Amino acid sequence: MGLDGAMTDSAVTIVPEGEIAGLITPQIAFDAVEATFAAMSRKSAYNFPVIRESIGHADALYGFKSGFDRDSLALGLKSGGYWPGNEAKGLTNHQSTVILFDADTGKVKALVGGNLLTALRTAAASAVSIKHLAREDAKVLGMIGAGHQSAFQMRAAVAQRNFEKVVGWNYHPEMLSRLEDTATELGLPFEAVSLEELGAQSDVIISITSSFAPSLLDAHVKPGTHIAAMGTDTKGKQEIDAPILARATVFTDEIAQSITIGEAQHAIADGSLTEGQITEIGAVINGDHAGRTSADEITVFDGTGVGLQDLAVARVAVDLAQAKGVASKVDF
Ligand code: NAD
Predict the structure, then answer these.
(1) Mean pLDDT of successive 10-residue segments in the chain (332 residues)?
(2) Residues with CB under 6 A from ligand 1
(3) What is the pLDDT of residue 5?
């Protein structure tokens, strides 16, 4: 069947990377991710073990994140990884593609570009945590990290509270212009600050770096702060000091990932935090956990990034692409 043919049982829908920007807004990603975290906590949705391998070619890391959501019937995987030489070829270093399958038949259903979706679903996760865990009167947003993801993070976060100012710190100060430009785009003043100043001013802190040593230290963090630690998604990475987690109430997307590849891996390893002290954010969304219980409480969201987030936004992208007539279909 041709590209414009009617959908048949054997047709695969293709949503190219270039169409995603016109289909998925931060709010659409937010709704999909919030529903997914809720389904995970109800045990209606679960992630399969993550595969991530150094393939011994082109310095690449390659892997799969996959899962199944019985509520939405999203079944599939995100395949991809990191190719450090891509930039020199005019390509994005991170490459990902989502493949969705029919949960009733196992037949492949859709192929969806996953690069922009990854940024949108990651930003949606920290925004969900801000909605459910930050103080209602939060005014200052602190950003640690000024890489590719940081702009998406800031755009999604500002929709959740009446922020009046953004402060930022980055290990490579020459990258801070990204934060300033994004804040300006959002109509917010921006100030580049030290980590001490960032902690003293911020009501909400998002960290999104590739660091292997903590940037934010315990002494930097004032009572009442909500921290969304979003960069640590691999064994050995770390953005915030373990004692912060020991005195905070700790939430995550998925506990299994939090304690192995997330920010909590370090506090778990030094014995200052136990697995039982970590709560899935879905429990707060579902009303099974109170979330923040006092204005002085420090809350941490350990956002490790789960396959179900990718499937959720990809599923919506397919539906919207079909509704808007921008999806291609091929017999398979
Ligand atoms: P990027 O390469 O564009 O930016 C990297 C950022 O990390 C920059 O701000 C850089 O200055 C900072 N950095 C580098 N070395 C540092 C160090 N030693 N100490 C402190 N900061 C340092 O990357 P990106 O696309 O913005 O992604 C940032 C991180 O987020 C990556 O580690 C990535 O794996 C992670 N990530 C997580 C999820 C998730 O779901 N949790 C999703 C996507 C990306």
Answers:
(1) 49 96 98 98 95 94 95 95 92 94 96 97 98 98 97 98 98 98 98 98 98 98 98 95 98 97 97 98 98 98 97 98 95 90
(2) 118, 122, 145-150, 170-172, 175, 208-211, 215, 230-231, 233, 303-305
(3) 43
Q: What pLDDT score was predicted for residue 9? A: 63
CA 293 to chain CA mean position, Å:
24
Geometric angle at alpha carbon 252, from 246 and 257, rounded to 5°: 100
165-169 vs 190-192, strand pairing mode: parallel
**Known catalytic residues?**
78
- Our mutation pick for probing the ligand 1 site, out of 195, 198, 210, counting the most ligand atoms within 8 A of Cβ, is 210
304 Cα nearest atom in ligand 1: 41
Which residue do the tokens 């009733």 mark?
104
Ligand 1 geometric centre to CA of 136 (Å): 28
- Rg of the chain in Å (alpha carbons): 20
CATH architecture of 135-305: 3-Layer(aba) Sandwich (3.40)
Give the atom of ligand 1 at the shortest distance from the alpha carbon of 122.
40
C-beta separation of 145 from 231 below 8 A: yes
Name the phi and psi angles at 306, rounded to 5.
-115, 155
Q: Write down the pLDDT at residue 92.
A: 87
Give the distance (Å) from ligand 1 centre to CA of residue 101.
Answer: 31
What is the pLDDT at residue 62? Answer: 95
Q: Which atom of ligand 1 is nearest to the CA of 172?
A: 11
Q: Are 231 and 209 in contact (CB under 8 A)?
A: yes
> 11-117+308-331 maps to which CATH number?
3.30.1780.10
Domain with CATH 3.40.50.720 in the chain: 135-305
Locate CATH 3.30.1780.10 in the chain. 11-117+308-331
